[in-house]
Amino acid sequence: MSTTTQRSEWLRGVLGLCVLRAMADGPTYGYAIAADLARAGFGDVKGGTLYPLLARLEKNDLVTVEWRAGAGGPGRKYFSLTDAGRAELEQGITQWQAFSSVVTGYLTSDSAGDAPTSPCPPTP
């Protein structure tokens, strides 16, 4: 498996949580979210991946949407976390930390059977 394919598969699993984190500091729009993720080292998140995810977050009442007029250009759709979105982010961070600890422990142990036995968080 190529490194690019592997990273893409890993990102697919955590992108929703990372997008919620990108909105944690206040309202933002799609291009700014993609730029924030790129600066953080996630690479280029395409609009065809990001915008359907944002639509799902809106449908699940994790974000609200507000259209704002653009300065000399078209308006922008701004996304903000709802209280449910903030709770989802906090819960997701806790679950990710537990899961990544288990994976790291397993991958870095001398023998797979010697890995720590902390349970993975339950899947939602």
Explain what you see.
The relative contact order is 0.12. Helix content is 56%, strand content 11%. It is mainly α. The protein is elongated and about 60 Å long.
Structural classification: mainly alpha
Kindly estimate the percentage of residues that lie in beta strands according to DSSP: 5-15%
Strands, total number: 3
Provide a count of the helices.
4
How far apart the termini lie comes to 28 Å
Strand order in the sheet with the most strands:
1-3-2
Shape: elongated
Helix percent band: 55-70%
Q: Could you name the ranges where pLDDT drops below 50 across 5 or more consecutive residues? A: none
Q: What does the average pLDDT come to?
A: 89
Q: What characterizes the major β-sheet?
A: 3 strands, antiparallel
Task: Note the run of SSEs as H and E.
Answer: HEHHEEH
Give me the Rg, rounded.
17 Å
Relevant terms:
single chain, 124 residues, mainly alpha, 3-stranded antiparallel β-sheet, 3 strands, elongated
